[in-house]
Write a structure and sequence with these properties.
Elements lengths: L1 H27 L6 H27 L5 H22 L9 H26 L8
Length: 131
């Protein structure tokens, strides 16, 4: 439990720091990207990263050795949700452009990198009953 709280604290810190830098960059460049949409992007990615982490932890707890597959499935679902909510429909807050896609990709990549790093830490843990 302590390790899980540590990992989630790291995610919160990473999202806050990268999100703040991203927001300041948008505000200083006079780019007309809606700030509310940026908050939504980071919130959705944060929530889905927590859900993916919980599923990976549950798979590790079951000793099922499918954590990598759970991660892949979670990444696929995460990208599908982001695409469906923010890009696919006509009333989407982000329209198809390179800069808009970049603003979608930065929160996604931030959480994805954290998930990969955390998954590698989980998978490299020694079993409790060895040695």
């Amino acid at each position: 439990m302590k390790q899980s709280l540590w990992h989630l604290g790291q995610l919160l810190a990473v999202v806050f720091v990268i999100g703040s830098i991203h927001l300041v960059t948008i505000l200083n460049s006079n780019y007309t990207f809606p700030v509310a949409t940026l908050y939504q992007l980071y919130a959705v990615n944060f929530i889905m990263a927590i859900a993916g982490y919980a599923m990976i932890r549950f798979a590790y707890w079951l000793k099922s050795q499918v954590e990598g597959f759970v991660f892949l499935l979670g990444s696929f679902v995460k990208f599908a949700v982001l695409y469906g909510v923010f890009l696919a429909n006509e009333t989407a807050a982000i329209h198809d452009s390179r800069q808009a896609f970049l603003h979608l990709f930065i929160p996604y990549a931030t959480c994805l990198i954290w998930e990969i790093a955390t998954l590698s830490k989980i998978l490299n843990q020694a079993p409790k009953n060895s040695v």
